[in-house]
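Homework help thread (please don't just give me the answer)

Our assignment gives two proteins as sequence + structure token strings and asks us to describe the second one. The first is just a warm-up. Here they are:
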Amino acid sequence: MENFWDMLHNWARIARIRLWKYRKKRIAEKARRARRKAIMQKPLLPKEQLVDKTSQQAPLSTSEITAMLEKVAQRFEDDHEDEPLQLPVEEKPKPKIKPVVFDDPNEVMGKSNIIYYEDPEVARKTPTRSIELKQVELPVDEDVNPEDVEDNFVPQKRLSQEDMKELMSSESIPDPDFSGACTFEELGNVADVLLNRTTDKKKIMDAAETLYKLQDSDIYHFYTTSISTEKQVDRLLRNNLDGAGRRLNGKQLERTEIDWNKFM
């Protein structure tokens, strides 16, 4: 911001100086015009009076003539003070226009000249500055067995035999934190139980176990929002499973009624 104000101050100074020079030049030109106007407006005497005065005047001395010449020179300098000095400009010789001369005297002016251009298709196919190359047979690589090639650049990262056996074995230990997969029949059974389409105790137990496996999943959220309500799902789990997800085998937990009169 400081640089901007400095630059603006410099521009103002430049404008003020140029305006002062222009005003000074105008004042000088105005004074010069006033002097010329005063000279031109002086009354001229008739020729007879001028002859009489010149005849009556005594001859001037050398000092008077010198003073008059100095006044005339000073006046001339004042008049031409502001006029720029014009140097003589050398005129450049104009180039001479040569007349058109026809070599053939029998040629007619304005005659159309026929020019034959090369066919673009032929010009495209015709090579320019072409050089014939020597035909050289390229060498053919022989088939190399991969076992004969030494591959020592990258360290070999292979599984050991024990890791391979463990990976390829059919028996695997399930992860306890990972819920098992559910079939379409199990998912359909859950939907039937929530929509009260069946009263089979076994199917109700299976549906409760399936919902317990699907807790904290998108399918469980779908069941509690779209098909049924969260209260109904919680009631189903509470009536058929314990806190660890095991079946109650038809024995529901005894609910003890709270006597609120004791606390009133």
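The one we have to describe:
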Amino acid sequence: MNKKAFQFAKLLLIFAFLAASCRPGPGPTALPTAATTPAGEPTQAGTPSVGVLPTEPAPTQVTPSVRATVSGNSRGYLTTPQELQAIKQKAEQGIEPYRSTVQAALLAAQEALNAKFPRVPDEIDIDEDKIETPKYLSEGALDAYALALGFHLVKESDPLLAEKYAEKAYKLVMTLPRRHTDVSGYQANTRLNLSVYIPAFVYAADLLADWKVPGTDKFFYESPDNQQLKEWLGSVIIRYPYNAAHTRNNNWGAWARLATAAIGDYVGADAPLYIQGFAKGISGEYLINPLAVCDPHAVVDCLAIDGGMAYATALRLHFEFVDGKLVENSRSSCDSEGIPGMIRPDGGLPDELRRQYKCDSIEIKDPEGAAASYSQFAIQPMVSLAEIAWRRGSAELYTHIDPATGRGALYRAIQFLVKNNVRMKHPT
């Protein structure tokens, strides 16, 4: 991850934690609804079918418990317009860390406004193992979110500047959907890069929900543009993170589950989500259904599900992973050594530790090395997913521990880094 992206990622996490202190209490944010009766396999290749394969466990409904109050039409992912206003008020009073965080956010927004518009790819064609490819994702998505945050932080004090922030964020969010930009395939870093950056476009779009689209009488949430965005996310994008969410046990899977949940929650029932079908193999790994391979550039060989099903599937797969029950059938995973990917009882992540040590290493001797940085990179999306789930009514991702094994505790993954003197200051 480049330095700019890493610094902005830290800023987003700080905002999420500051927002937690500004939440006014339980409220009405709607919970995504999973489909109740999944359909079976497609009856023939070339005909989209609705649902999941009967051999893949059906996602269970999340039980509402605590929600943040949200007014207006923003659903709230890592923060909300109301929380941003509360954070700004504390910053204006000179209270730390609100003051310095708002300063950093406004600096990021101004830099994003001044930045040259990134080159728009004709196709998202990622044929290398670089997290920065293409720049429209690695820079454009983060700039869009920085601008959307800045919009809410200055809209009362400087409406003209706020409008400039919103307009550029809107252009960054909508350019790829308007051009019907497609993805070339599942190769190289495609699934990871889409999973890392697409959620930032979703967060930005959500913060623009009650912003009026120029030249229209529509707010963004009710505009044809927003519908076009949702259709593009469902028909072009989600198949890639959905694949990695099922098949990868390292940071790829963590980011993919976040992207799957964010897209599913945002799209809801407003557009079909086209994904691969999966069934569990003999060893417990997820295998792609040959009748639902969901090739690039088409939907005829895909399954179609709704957003609630995608969201619930992402949460189910998260628990499978952290508890050591999600199998990755690859030589590059710790599963190949008989050590499942998981959050261990001590908080270690085997598939990130192996990048510098062994899968069963119990300490990080180099707090600035690959094991430390990749562990941070894997934990970040899990915290973001837990935050979204909390806002949708379930604190379980924050509080979960498998009582039989002691695995799965997200807070222990963070404690493991703290215990090993790891500081979040280096890009991956």
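TA reply:
I won't write it for you, but here's a hint about the kind of observation we're looking for: Confidence is low (pLDDT under 50) at residues 25-55, 60-68.
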